[in-house]
């Protein structure tokens, strides 16, 4: 267990450092006193406090865009009024100076005009410099506003990421605590895991060897079944020849040669049944033969029966169809085998193939 503790403590130290960095970043963000954040919050809170219970027209009047448009219109109207006022005032003074008496009229000398011109020029220069400063300020605002917005977005993303990392750290610690409570000591160490892996590899190799042995045994059993099927075929031929011989000889019932021949035929049938595990065979009709085979299952299971129904064409010895029951329980699909043997009229091959597949499934 001493070799596994550093690997568990190292992530905890890194997580603690990440939490401290996140807290420091949050503290710095709060201490910066960003005006955009404060003004946005103040603006939102102001609208939420004052807009409650207002009419739609009053709510539209509180919209900054609409207010800005109204202010711009009012400023334009005021400038027009100011220009009209100055124009009317100048006309009035001009008319008064013309129609009034010379003694009462104000005397404007050339020096006063020069002084007024100088003052106007100074005011124009100040106005020009003020306009330049205002344009420069506008340009600076246009240049700095995207940068401030970008910094604000980056800072906001960093804050969200810090909060997310803090939550993930808390969740990871909670999961680690639950895992430690679920799996108390002694826990699985690296040497124990390696030993367990080696044992599993050895067990898999043993099972693989057993599978190979079972496959070899199944192969040998298939060869034995094939040879037994050939023996059964030979016995069937001999039985058919014996039946023909019995029919042609037309011997009497009290002939002593029938007894040994009957015993031999009975022994041959018993041998055939024992070799192929034929449990029952009978004819359902003139062209239908039903064969039932018994398969020995591993203990403590009971023997399993497979029934093969052979249907021949009427008045011929050609196989027309075959039905197999009892293979679904073994997980065997024999439709392709049946179709292939029915097409070539191979009855013995069909029976041997079905039994071979069934015995292979039982042995595995």
From TrEMBL:
Domain Kinetochore protein Sos7 coiled-coil, by residue range, is 78-152
* InterPro entries to which the protein is assigned, alphabetical: Sos7, Sos7_CC
Q: Name one GO biological process term.
A: protein localization to kinetochore
Q: Name one GO cellular component term.
A: kinetochore
Family annotation (Pfam families)? Sos7
**Which UniProt keywords are present, listed alphabetically?**
Coiled coil
Domain of life from the UniProt record? Eukaryota
Coiled coil among keywords: yes
Task: Show the coiled coil region(s).
Answer: 113-140, 197-252
Q: Which PANTHER family match?
A: KINETOCHORE PROTEIN SOS7
> What is the protein named?
Kinetochore protein Sos7 coiled-coil domain-containing protein
């Amino acid at each position: 267990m001493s070799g596994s503790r550093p690997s568990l403590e190292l992530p905890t130290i890194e997580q603690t450092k990440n939490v401290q960095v996140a807290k420091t970043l949050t503290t710095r963000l709060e201490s910066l006193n960003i005006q955009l954040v404060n003004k946005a919050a103040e603006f939102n809170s102001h609208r939420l406090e004052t807009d409650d219970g207002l009419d739609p027209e009053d709510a539209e009047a509180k919209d900054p865009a609409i207010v800005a448009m109204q202010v711009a219109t009012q400023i334009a109207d005021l400038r027009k009024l100011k220009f009209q006022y100055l124009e009317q005032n100048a006309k009035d003074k001009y008319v008064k100076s013309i129609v009034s008496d010379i003694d009462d009229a104000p005397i404007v000398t050339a020096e006063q005009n020069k002084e007024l011109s100088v003052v106007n020029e100074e005011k124009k220069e100040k106005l020009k410099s003020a306009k330049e400063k205002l344009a420069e300020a506008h340009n600076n605002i246009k240049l700095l506003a995207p940068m401030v917005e970008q910094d604000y977005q980056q800072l906001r993303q960093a804050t969200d990421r810090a909060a997310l990392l803090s939550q993930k750290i808390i969740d990871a610690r909670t999961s680690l605590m639950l895992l430690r409570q679920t799996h108390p000591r002694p826990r699985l160490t690296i040497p124990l895991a390696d030993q367990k892996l080696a044992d599993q590899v050895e067990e898999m190799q043993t099972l693989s060897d057993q599978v190979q042995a079972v496959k070899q045994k199944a192969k040998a059993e298939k060869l034995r079944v094939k040879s037994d099927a050939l023996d059964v075929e030979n016995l069937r031929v001999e039985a058919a020849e014996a039946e023909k011989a019995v029919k042609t000889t037309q011997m009497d019932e009290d002939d002593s040669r029938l007894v040994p021949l009957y015993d031999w035929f009975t022994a041959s049938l018993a041998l055939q049944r024992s070799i192929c595990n034929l449990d029952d065979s009978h004819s359902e009709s003139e062209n239908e033969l039903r064969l039932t085979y018994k398969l020995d299952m591993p203990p403590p299971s009971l023997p399993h029966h497979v029934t093969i129904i052979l249907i021949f064409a009427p008045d011929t010895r050609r196989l027309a169809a075959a039905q197999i029951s009892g293979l679904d329980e073994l997980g065997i699909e024999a439709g392709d085998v049946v179709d292939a043997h029915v097409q070539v009229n191979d009855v013995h091959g069909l029976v041997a193939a079905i039994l071979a597949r069934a015995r292979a499934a039982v042995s595995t």
